[in-house]
Amino acid sequence: MAKYLLLKHYRGAPAAVNDVPMDRWTPEEVTAHVQYMEDFATRLEGTGEFVDGQALAPDGMWVRSDGEGRPPVTDGPFAETKDLIAGWMIIDVDTRERAIELAGELSAAPGAGGEPIHEWLEVRPFLGAPPTITE
User: Fold this and answer.
1) Burial of 72 (0-12, 13-18, 19+ CB in 10 A)
2) What does each of the 135 residues of the chain score in pLDDT, given as a tens digit?
């Protein structure tokens, strides 16, 4: 089994087919979208392929170390940046093809007008252990 991260971009990914921003959806459309995501996760829990997933708030900040004994440096919030991650899901699947299949399903969550979004999802495999080198 291999773990994959499915990233949902609110901004920064290629445009979706149903490209109406969520802040223009009706409350019923938002509810239907969230329900689709929950049902999808529940189905994957049943197959043992769901690891975790979360929606993310649009506000955030950058943080870095400023050196030993000094407080961290922060910069932000950056809600206006061009790339904004809306949420993520971690799956644990047998093959890369299965990860792509599930990402395709997830991209069809309903959006405005109850129509599938067909949004682009970023699919990233977890970094595995480096190969053992023997001489």
Assistant:
1) exposed
2) 899 999 988 766 778 889 888 889 999 999 999 999 999 999 999 999 999 999 888 777 778 888 899 988 887 655 555 567 889 999 999 999 999 999 999 999 999 999 999 999 999 999 986 767 877
Number of Cβ within 10 Å of residue 97's Cβ equals: 9
Helix or strand or coil: residue 25? coil
Ordered domains of the chain (ranges, CATH): 2-57+84-125 (3.30.70.1060)
Edge-to-edge, what's the strand order for the sheet holding 50-55?
50-55, 84-93, 2-11, 121-125
Specify the pTM: 0.81
